[in-house]
Design the sequence.
């Protein structure tokens, strides 16, 4: 019985991933704003009901795409990771997030723009909470254990840093996102120096 349940769950997960892949493929052709769920269903040879069984709407598919980046960022680190300086650990986990999204960078930017449409206020508050959760995942994956005032400063600083790096990443034409990597490296070094002066 347990084996059958696991098999059904694995099949459902594969179906959900296939939907995300098809939506991304279509978005590369027509833009994220041009994606319609019925066209995703046609591409996969399934019904709209099959899509609805996995995702409530197109925004949920976008969230599933960002969840892949979270999972890539939270994957087990390489040996010796814990011995690195905090800023090096942060650089590693944040770039893992960006690297996971890089195959569809243009579409990723379009997803965020769609969430920010004036006609989509129901997406604004979840977007803020998703940013907060992403920052917490970065802190956990980078093994940051500060509490109290230092944690509050880290969270605010990381939020600003992440948004600035995201903006840089969206327009980065360099090979292997080298400009983004260097931008993030410089900003983390500057933040490290600032934290040393603020936190006593």
Sequence:
């Amino acid at each position: 019985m347990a084996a059958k349940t696991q098999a059904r769950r694995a099949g459902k997960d594969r179906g959900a991933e296939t939907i995300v892949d098809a939506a991304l493929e279509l978005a590369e052709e027509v833009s994220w704003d041009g994606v319609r769920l019925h066209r995703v269903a046609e591409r996969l040879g399934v019904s709209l009901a099959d899509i609805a069984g996995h995702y409530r709407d197109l925004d949920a598919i976008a969230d599933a795409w960002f969840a892949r980046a979270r999972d890539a960022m939270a994957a087990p680190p390489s040996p010796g990771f814990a011995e690195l300086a905090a800023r090096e650990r942060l650089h590693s986990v944040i770039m893992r997030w960006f690297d996971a999204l890089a195959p569809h960078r243009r579409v990723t930017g379009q997803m965020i723009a769609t969430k920010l449409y004036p006609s989509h206020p129901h997406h604004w508050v979840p977007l803020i909470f998703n940013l907060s959760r992403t920052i917490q995942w970065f802190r956990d994956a980078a093994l940051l254990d500060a509490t109290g005032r230092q944690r509050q400063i880290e969270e605010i600083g990381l939020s600003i840093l992440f948004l600035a790096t995201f903006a840089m990443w969206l327009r980065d034409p360099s090979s292997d996102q080298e400009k983004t990597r260097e931008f993030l490296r410089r900003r983390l070094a500057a933040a490290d120096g600032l934290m040393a002066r603020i936190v006593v």
Q: What stands out?
A: Residues 1-10, 196-200 have pLDDT under 50 and may be disordered.
